[in-house]
Amino acid sequence: MAEMRTGPIGHDELALAARNHGMPLEALRYPITPAGLHYLLIHYDIPAVDPGAWRLEIDGNVATPLTLGVEDLAARPRVTVPVILECAGNGRALQSPRPLSQPWLLEAVGNAEWTGTPLRPLLEEAGMLDGSVEVLFTGLDRGIEGAIDQAYERSLPLAEAIGDDVLLADEMNGQPLLPQHGFPLRLIVPGWYGMTQVKWLHRIQVLTEPFEGYQHTNSYRFAASENDPGEPLSRIRPRSLMVPPGVPGFPIRTRHAEPGPTLVQGRAWSGLGAIERVEFSSDGGATWADAELTPATGDFAWCGWTFTWEAEPGEHELCCRTTDETGATQPLEGEWNVGGYSNNAVQRVPVVVAEPVG
Amino acid sequence: MAEMRTGPIGHDELALAARNHGMPLEALRYPITPAGLHYLLIHYDIPAVDPGAWRLEIDGNVATPLTLGVEDLAARPRVTVPVILECAGNGRALQSPRPLSQPWLLEAVGNAEWTGTPLRPLLEEAGMLDGSVEVLFTGLDRGIEGAIDQAYERSLPLAEAIGDDVLLADEMNGQPLLPQHGFPLRLIVPGWYGMTQVKWLHRIQVLTEPFEGYQHTNSYRFAASENDPGEPLSRIRPRSLMVPPGVPGFPIRTRHAEPGPTLVQGRAWSGLGAIERVEFSSDGGATWADAELTPATGDFAWCGWTFTWEAEPGEHELCCRTTDETGATQPLEGEWNVGGYSNNAVQRVPVVVAEPVG
């Protein structure tokens, strides 16, 4: 199982952080995250894919297995939806102890527009047979994890896989998928954490038994201890983030702001339901006030929020928290688990406000 | 001055690593680095720029100061060149002790196609006056460094600034600059380290005295000790990198390969002159053999190389090193300096080769 750590970050964790990109938080300002600023978690390597030779196989417990090329998929009905994606490990490095894994702070998020063809009609075309319980999605990325040589693959319960919003996406923000986002095809399951959004997708199998692969049995479970099998992760817990106000220091990125009314802006999302509330605190979470919400541009997109903070000279700790329509909210302290998953504790942004000039 | 560190990475260094993107080394396979895989070092924050309101000012020691908008620049003569860019701090986290700064391993590199208008004709149009010695480039990004509230700005000696290849770029890989790469305009000085390539450029001043700003006097110098003023950095030292062969582990990214002939591919570059040689070692640098070179696609682009490695079962340390036409080569151990700059020691890639099957 995972090696647990406290304190500074090992060079092995840095080797992951150097290649898995976070979204710099000032990019919360863009309603749609531009290419190259969206977070990336690549379990193994970005595979080299020849789009001419690439095929998607749909098989398993179906009447008519299908084989589709890039052009077959592009010729099918297309939809475009803005979708928040977040890594299940976002916030992991803020948990203590943390497992040896990608040491995310809070940047493992993005809200892009994904274009592709809905999955359900393809499964209907293949003709799912009686006894189907899950659908397995396999990527071309391969590596060795837990001493097992494996392709990255994850399944979905059948009811989720045939959901209205599940998409096989070949474009991001109106452009062909970039290599690192799964070219030529990836799965998009709105509302679910990133581990579900299989990239470099090349096979979809309808299963008659629940899948018990590594990424289900060993990873992506809420386990309270090494011996607890835990419950599987699925939908994104509510989170809000702010663009840290003022200007940063370098190399220590403490924020420095001017006194006076300061418009703080941010985003909020939840995979469990619509965002109903965002609150802001300038005293480390002791007192809270409601922020103003901007509606989301889609059912699975983030929404915007703003709060005018009366910045007074001195040191402050700004926080934000959101609550969705199910009543789920962000805790002041994250709920600890072995994998360091889904740590949606409120963001804390120390800010130094200068004395007024003159 | 910089705080020096050894051993694991602090959370303050991680906060930099989480936002400054490296290029995953398998992306060395792409002759032109795709959007979102090119390295990024953002000293402060990505500024929000309204392209309609944005103007470039060219002033200082000139006869006719110029003010240009986005469309004025787009209407000028345009050239496209592939250029290797590398952060001066690439390799910093492999130096010990290292300064508190962005903890790069080896991923701070990219080779994109930049399109824009040459700088010299603009300076000629402004009419540089007698006594001009340097040209200062100022970006819109701002932060507090060394207790100084500053915009990021760097100068070039006049002879360099009027070089044939210096470009004001507004496109990368045939697309408008992404926000994080300097939208709407950045400087491209082929052959120089990344600190020179000022992003979010909004002012160009012709100077009659050498510029002594923070990024020249306090940063980007080869200093042997805290009290050594050191020499300024300029051109990129030679470096070669390989795509780590085989497949990675997760979370420890050790490479696992099969026995037999294995095509290892990589890139090499130098800002000092053309690449003449790349060598490969499978025994940690004890013995070397020449790799095969593929010509660069431009004077300032990286070139490709391949080597067929006869992989035998066991543990190996693969290395590569390059030599340019000036005779400059890569050392086995980097030359230590206070800033952790320009550490071009040979890359070392541990690989475990399996026993043959059957």
Can you walk through the features of this model?
2 copies of one chain form a homodimer. The first copy, chain A, has 358 residues and is mainly beta. The first copy, chain A, folds into 2 domains: 4-232, Alpha-Beta Complex (Sulfite Oxidase, Chain A, domain 2), CATH 3.90.420; 239-353, Immunoglobulin-like. In chain A, 8% of the residues lie in helices and 37% in strands. Chain A has helices at 11-17, 70-74, 120-126, 158-161, 214-217; strands spanning 4-5, 56-60, 66-68, 79-86, 98-99, 109-118, 134-145, 148-157, 167-172, 175-176, 186-188, 201-207, 221-222, 231-232, 239-242, 247-250, 255-257, 260-269, 275-281, 289-290, 292-294, 303-311, 314-324, 347-353. In chain A, strand 13 (221-222) and strand 14 form a beta hairpin. The longest helix of chain A is centred in the first third of the chain and has 7 residues, at 11-17. Chain A is globular and about 75 Å long. Chain A starts with a strand and ends in a 5-residue tail after the last strand. The mean pLDDT of chain A is 97. Chains A and B meet through helix 1, strand 7 and strand 16 of A and helix 1, strand 7 and strand 16 of B. Strand 16 of chain A pairs parallel with strand 7 (134-145) of chain B.
